[in-house]
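quick one
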Amino acid sequence: MSYPINRRRFLVTTAAAGTAAATVQLTPGRAAAQDGELPDFASFKTPDDVMVWTGNTIETERGAQGGSITGLSSLFVRNNLPAPPQSITDDPDGWVIEIDGVANPGSMTLGDIKRLGVITVSSVLQCSGNGRAFFGHETSGTQWSVGAAGNVVWTGVPLNAVIAAMGGPADGANFITGTGGEEIPAGLDPNTIMVERSIPIGALDQAMIAFEVNGEPLPVAHGGPARMVTPGYFGVNNVKYVKKVALTAEESQAKIQQSGYRVREVGAGGAPDQPSMYEMVVKSWITTPLVDVQSGKILIEGVAMGGVSTVTGVEVSTDGGATWQAADFTGPDTGPFSWRPFALMADMPAGQYELASRATNEAGDTQPEDFPPNHRGYGHNGWRDHAVLVTVV
Ligand SMILES: Nc1nc2c(c(=O)[nH]1)N[C@H]1C(S)=C(S)[C@@H](COP(=O)(O)O)O[C@H]1N2
Ligand SMILES: [Mo]
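structure w/ molybdenum atom:
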């Protein structure tokens, strides 16, 4: 299967700080998204709504974002390792999860876990590298612009309930460590490639074992049959096909924990003493218009998130940040970890416009104008680089 090139991809321009407008995906020296085929495990995605970078890396088109909830047909996908076979979701309730670092360590099936009580929470799922394409330096990794993020509804069991069922935390627990269920090829040191992430134990307040997304059983592409989800935490911490959850004294020895997802200066190597990509931060971006529009009253729309604190406001600028106007939220408040769509009607006579948005959360954090570079291009929330240049004709 192949599909037509999506024109939007070539028309969207961004305003990079202090430089002329540059097309995001076509900046020289940066890989362009392939018009590749959707891999089998993600064949349910709508081709026009996504960019297929690789068989394990799929980005949502900016123009396909917006709205309160991101449909699974357009939600991004990021796998560090090849996804397990479809058959792992054949018997979800039979999926076994090992629970360690508790008074009575052992295993529970997903069916047992479900009987402990189910909750539903909306949360943004966002890759640490979302916005990587906007950095001025060369970064390795997928050149995501805004589409490695979506807002979804998770249904699952609070991890606290699972821990309590196993007799409560063992002494000395400092981290929650989740292990992904991918098979590690024989002969390889698992620590070099396995997806095992540790997050601070305080995250027990919101961590859950999720088994549904947007009311559907979790597909393999998004971690089925069971996934550890910590609303408010960057994507990598939401371990798919979770086969083990342990309360641990130390962080995982896996490379993805020890040196991966560490924020450091450009040129520096990753090390355990550097900040890890845990909690998300306040961020917003415009999703329409992205292309030339007819003059008159123009509806500017986008999405805004608060990270781990409810988004409380978002301002929009049509002049590259010289002046700002408060936008209205157009979707419901679905909690601190969720995003909300916003809209502003603006009178725009013919001309060139730099459309920017700037969100604020309940904690009082506002997006900065510029975001300092870091080696791997993580966590960009600067409003200027997320602006779009639009010509009104
Ligand atoms: N087991 C496992 N969990 C994983 C990953 C993975 O490769 N394996 N990738 C992580 C990363 S880096 C991200 S951004 C999210 C992506 O979630 P999605 O593919 O459902 O969008 O899953 C995270 N959980
Ligand atoms: Mo990620």
